[in-house]
Structures are given as structure tokens and as C-alpha cells.
Amino acid sequence: GAVVSQHPSRVICKSGTSVKIECRSLDFQATTMFWYRQFPKQSLMLMATSNEGSKATYEQGVEKDKFLINHASLTLSTLTVTSAHPEDSSFYICSARGVVQDYNEQFFGPGTRLTVL
Amino acid sequence: AQRVTQPEKLLSVFKGAPVELKCNYSYSGSPELFWYVQYSRQRLQLLLRHISRESIKGFTADLNKGETSFHLKKPFAQEEDSAMYYCALSEGNNDMRFGAGTRLTVKP
After folding, report:
1. Rounded distance, CA A45 to CA A35, Å?
2. Taking the alpha carbons of B43, A36, B96, B7 in that order, is the dihedral positive or negative?
3. Is the pLDDT of residue B2 over 70?
4. What pLDDT is stored for residue B42 in this prediction?
5. CB of A105 within 8 Å of any CB in chain B?
6. A32 to chain B: which residues are within 8 Å by CB?
7. Helix-strand-coil percent breakdown of chain B, rounded to 5?
């Protein structure tokens, strides 16, 4: 079946540094990619939606200068957390939407755990 | 604005008992509704979509437009069904909104 990968799976960084997370759709073309944030024991919160070649649409309350999203191709999107602070520590999950076996479906990556010291 | 409500954060049943996980939605258009499941230490995966009207792992879900509900049901719960379940609503090719999730525990 369709697979979405994320890299890295886990990252620890110092406060003030920037972290880049990659999301790839491995065997299908993703017309749209999404980035979610999940706090412990809570649901997924949509951060932003991006279409290939265009600017991402951010949800209310999500700082676009803080969370930079680049969707360079139909199989790759990146999320860069700039000047990370401890409150940015979270589980970040990407998702890719595309047509697989005649269904327009959304697949999820395994997530990236970010810890900011 | 679209919204998905899962009223129960936790649900616990005994093995073999029926289980129903509730989901209500508010959306002005024609929604696409899904159930996703997240097993311990695994990624989120699709369980059911309302348009396909299928039964997966014994689970079914019927869209009730009158009650704006999409409850997930299984007649006989199994221990391996223990997981987090998320109801989700999608507006075409746009974003997918998730409910708060229900943690199902099936006791032996």
C-alpha cells in the first residue's frame, strides 16, 4: 500500500536552533500534504496544508514564520521549526493525500518527536 | 466551520462485548467521513471511509445525516482492538479535521 515516510523520527536540539523535518510519499504523488502536531494523549491538530508549488495555508494561531513549510515536489514536503524553544517540543506528523487505487485518500507518516532543550 | 465531536475520551469494554464509539459532526456541505485507528507505537491508519460502506476488522460505521453522526460499531470486541480511534471529516481535497479521539480498552 501507499507509504509516507518522515525523517528524522526523533530529534533533540538546543533552544534557538532550527530543525528540518522531511515528509515523503514513497509510491504515489501527493497533491496535498498536511502537517499536524500531537501533544501527549491528545488528538492531532492541523497546523498547515500545502499544495505542490504554492504557499502553505496555515491554521489560525500557527505562526508561519516559525513553522516554515516547503512543498517542492509531489513527493516531498519539509517543515522547518525555526528558532525552536522548549514549548515547540511535540510530535509532528505529516500526511499526504493522493489517488491510490482509484480512491483519493490520505496517508500518515510515522511522526517525528522533537525535543527542544 | 466543520467540526468533529467524539464525546468519550475513554471507553472500556470486556472482550466479546459490543462496542460503539460515538462521532458527531457539523458541516454545511456533503461531508466525507472517516475513522482512523492508532495502535500503540504505530502510525495513524485508515480504518473505514463512509463512502465505501465496508466492514474492516469487524467494524462498521453508518453515516446518519439526520443525526449528523458516524458512530463506529463492532458486535464483539477483541483485545487487539484496544487503540485510539479518531473520527475525521474531510472537505474534498482540503484538510482533514480530527475529533479528539477515543481510547478504547478491551479487557480480557
Report:
1. 9
2. positive
3. no
4. 85
5. yes
6. 93-94
7. 5, 50, 45
Per-residue pLDDT tens for A32-66?
Answer: 899 999 988 788 888 999 888 788 999 999 999 99
**B96 touching A, CB under 8 A?**
yes
Tracing cell 515536489 back to the chain, one arrives at A73
Contact B7/A at CB under 8 A: no
The proportion of chain A whose per-residue pLDDT surpasses 70, expressed as a percent, equals 99
Minimal CA–CA distance to A64: which of A44, A50, A85, A45? A50
Does the beta-carbon distance from B46 to A105 stay under 8 Å? yes
Query: Which residue shows C-alpha cell 492531532?
Result: A44
| CB contact at 8 A, A4 and A60 | no
Chain A residue numbers touching B101 (CB-CB < 8 A) = 42-43
For B50, the grid coordinates are: 463512509
Cell numbers linked to B82:
484496544
* Cβ neighbours of A101 (radius 10 Å): 8
